């Protein structure tokens, strides 16, 4: 694991390490790399705009945000991001986080699949939205330094992430047609994911 990319570092400490362990144990390498890249894209977006944010909170949320797509944590009743939010609340309870901070981790994960959040209202939620959008569909990718994007993919290769992710979302959409993942296909996001510039390179 590389802890630094283009001058950006992942947070250290018990919570960050525990989140990394959970992600590596339950997600495949492509999904794990996506989770880390989402953190770095979000952190880079904040750096470019001079935004302060809670790096531990963002990192933990980024590492757990897609756990609801994995078989052990998938829910047949609720959307994957909601399942991931519940997992985050349980996970952070084990870390001894206070209720308000546990709720924030869950909220960030749920909101990454919702409408855009203004950074002045909730900076960490916006950063995860920006990070996941850049990494999944390439939305906003042109705002990043190409050297940064290349360094990030070198550190955490995509490993066929696009096709794998589309497959995971298709499964969610078929079983839960009212969930946000179903809108991924009606908006043409699947095609953009498969044609992601970093996927092609």
Question: How is this structure best described in words?
Answer:
This protein is mainly α. The chain contains eleven helices and two strands; from the N terminus they run ββααααααααααα. A two-stranded antiparallel ribbon has the order 1-2. The radius of gyration is 15 Å and the shape is globular.
Mean pLDDT: 96
Assembly state: single chain
Identify the strand order in the major beta sheet.
1-2
Number-wise, the strands total 2
Enumerate the spans where pLDDT stays under 50 for 5 or more consecutive residues. none
Q: Note the gap between the termini.
A: 22 Å
The helix/strand class is mainly alpha
Number of helices: 11
Radius of gyration: 15 Å
Outline type: globular
How is the biggest beta sheet arranged?
2 strands, antiparallel
Helix content: 55-70%
The proportion of residues in beta strands is under 5%
Please write the string of helix (H) and strand (E) elements: EEHHHHHHHHHHH
């Amino acid at each position: 694991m590389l802890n630094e990319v283009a001058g950006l570092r992942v947070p250290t400490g018990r919570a960050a390490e525990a989140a990394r362990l959970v992600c590596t144990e339950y997600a495949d390498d492509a999904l794990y790399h996506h989770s880390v890249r989402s953190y770095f894209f979000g952190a880079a977006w904040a750096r470019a705009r001079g935004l302060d944010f809670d790096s531990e909170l963002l990192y933990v949320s980024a590492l757990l945000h897609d756990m609801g797509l994995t078989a052990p944590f998938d829910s047949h009743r609720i959307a994957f991001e909601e399942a991931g939010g519940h997992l985050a609340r349980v996970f952070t309870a084990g870390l001894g986080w206070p209720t308000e901070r546990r709720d924030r981790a869950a909220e960030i994960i749920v909101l990454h699949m919702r409408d855009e959040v203004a950074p002045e209202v909730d900076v960490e939620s916006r950063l995860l939205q920006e990070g996941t959008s850049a990494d999944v569909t390439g939305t906003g990718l042109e705002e990043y330094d190409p050297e940064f994007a290349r360094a990030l993919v070198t550190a955490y290769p995509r490993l066929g992430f696009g096709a794998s992710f589309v497959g995971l979302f298709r499964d969610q959409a078929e079983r839960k047609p009212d969930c946000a993942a179903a809108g991924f296909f009606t908006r043409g996001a699947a095609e953009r994911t498969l044609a992601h510039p970093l996927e092609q390179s």
